[in-house]
Amino acid sequence: MLLAAGVVALQMASNGRYGYFRDELYFLAASDHLDWGYVDFAPLSALVLRLSRLLFGESLHGLRLLPALAQGVEVLLTGLIARELGGKRFAIGLACLSVALAPVILGNATRFSMNPFEPLFWMGGVLALLLALNQERPQLLVWCGVLFGLGLENKHSTVFFLASLLVGLLGTSQRRLLRGKWLWMAAASVVVIALPNVLWQWARDFPTLVDLHNVRATHKNIELPPLPFLRQQIMMLNPASALVWIAGLGFLLFHGRGGRYRALGVTYVVFLSLMMGLHAKDYYLAPIYPMLFAAGGVLWEGLTETVPARWGRVLLSASVATLGVIALPLNIPVLPVEQVVPYMAALGMKVSRTETHHAGLLPQHFGDEFGWPEMVAAVAKVYDSLPPEERARTAILAGNYGEAGAIDFFGGRHGLPKSISAHQNYYYWGPRHYTGESLILLQWDSVSARRWCREVEEGPALAPRYGMSEEAYTILVCRGLKKPLAEAWDELKVWN
Prior knowledge:
By secondary structure, the chain is mainly α. It folds into two domains: about 1-330, no CATH class; about 370-490, no CATH class. The chain is about 60% helix and about 5% strand. It is built from 25 helices and five strands. It has a five-stranded mixed sheet with strand order 2-1-3-5-4. It is globular. The two termini are about 40 Å apart. About 50% of the residues are buried.
């Protein structure tokens, strides 16, 4: 409980230090367009954010309160799973400490997205499964279905976790659960809860699959071979904690006490293999690790029961805590921004990337929090410089959802209209009433603009020091789109 409260306090003390993250601006826009689906994410997060805005406001602290609380709940779930696996005080404490200080888990909770909530559905379902097994109450499996169904509505990658869990159950003695009605009722719950999003996808020819295909075809993400991928798992979870989660995997797969729960070990192996085979981003595995940390805590507790061996408990816990604290400034904004790169250099680390075209002075999870208010202010100067009659017909056409979301969120204070964009789900929100007579173009190059526009005027150049390099461009004014905007809309569409 103290560790859970501690991580929430740490997040809330630091999460207002930099700025709004690119994806947060997109989610804010989506929360104004509630629907049963979106091109590149599942619908639950937009609804959650809409409720969060009503309850806590739109400040950075308000926006990020629920992610901070989610990490606290994740720590609590880890402790409960450790207890169900047979752990006592040390096992629970070590598992919770490992999760509380895991860099990727800390980083996910610093901003609003699907990621901080994903482990709550996965590990909540795992806890329900363990309770059903340990208490011989198979009716609790229905809660697995409810949680996994909500997990699918939160993030589509849950389908791979569910497939892996099914293999784990089929490949172990827990296949007996398939003979009872409760597992089938759980499966029915998953289908019913996920159905609205499936119908939304079907009615639009599955845009999420199109988007994923485009990502793979353009090699947008950094694709790691198996060994570097495994190395990233160790690094993103804290190298000292590898002694815990790898031990936990061994406990689930090979230890006699873990035999009852072997399905969970098989689930991890299958899920890891799927993610490596699909060249997924390394952090996609983050939600599955609390159960391995819990199992590792149980194994280490058993190995260090004797008095001499108890020094091992101290050393292991101290190592996890020490490296976790050292890694804090790499994942949450505890340092002044100008000190981040020198701190990384002092540790011998370079700026890492998960996407091929994203580069900047800072790691992307920090860099995407800078430059947005300044960009909007520059656009406002261009917009205000236009003659009133032209201004009334001028649309702000953004190249990606980050810029569009920034215009939508910050633009009101400058008197700007809502943006338009053909990127990701903004495409479905359309060009509104604009015809293309006058456009302010964001993240367009001059060559492309002149191909589309009869007249192009260059505005101010943007060069955010700490922002991502793609946000360094010249604002352009397009007069006279060569094709009516409504007709050109499909050609402008970018799903990636």
